[in-house]
Amino acid sequence: MLLFHTKPHNSPTHKSIASLLASRMGGSHALFTALFIAGVAFHGSLVHARIDKSMYITWGAHHASISGDNLQLVLDQTSGSGARSKKTFLFGSIEMLIKLVPGNSAGTVTAYYLSSAGSAHDEIDIEFLGNISGDPYIIHTNIYTQGVGNREQQFYPWFDPTADFHNYTIHWNPTAVVWYIDSIPIRVYRNYEGNGVPYPNKQGMRVQTSLWNGEDWATRGGRVKIDWKGAPFIARLQRFRGRACGWTGAESIAQCAAPVPENWWTAPVYKQLSASQLSQMQGIRSTNMIYDYCTDSNRFNGKLPPECHLNQY
After folding, report:
1. Which of 85, 97, 115, 278 could hold 207 in an S-S bridge, CB 3.0 to 4.6 Å?
2. What GO molecular function terms would the record report (predicted)?
3. DSSP 252
């Protein structure tokens, strides 16, 4: 079994799958310094500054606001809003505290993800699909490699994500990507390049977040629209932390993957979960996972993607 610990510490297109997902849902710490190994400089990055030092608003500037270690995203009928990290990363641990839009959030999408640029981009997603009052959010995860996604897994939260802030962490190293919520792993995507399965390990990615209008697909396949009487819709984020390798260009591909002590994410301890962590993940997946592309043979005309036949855990 190949799983991961996190480091100790105190907008994609979905229309193509909206209808089939709706049917399945019932309608519903090191601070890195420069070091030199074999004459090559390895550069690590620790983003431990306040959000106002480590992120900036990319769109909807008249809506979004940054104050100290707090980011507020706003959506109304005129615009949504978004922000991204100033640094670009390849491997490490990315975390954020997020408190989602309360009340009737149907049609809204709060996104938190890593992404490179261009049509052949890599991307690691966590998106929160709003719902009508009384119905749970849907936590939508996906991974893109060379511009191709279609690897969705979805979960109902086991808590109220609007009542308080919760920690959402993406742990990414040369061996696998692991999604965590409040230190509980919910999903693993393993590196099977040797089996012909693409893996995001050659493009630096920035951390991005946004709140936007996804009413054409997000809630019950687009059948439930945004009730604009509830606007403005507000998502709040705190404490962005990036304990990761800073991307400086193509040379970072080898540098950030090198199994040296400074690249803590490559250490053996981050290739295994404890028995209790594995049990936690299996428990969440058995009770709260509502969609898994690896079980949707109809979607792939009876031929599941190759990684679906390989051990992810």
Report:
1. 85
2. hydrolase activity, hydrolyzing O-glycosyl compounds; xyloglucan:xyloglucosyl transferase activity
3. H
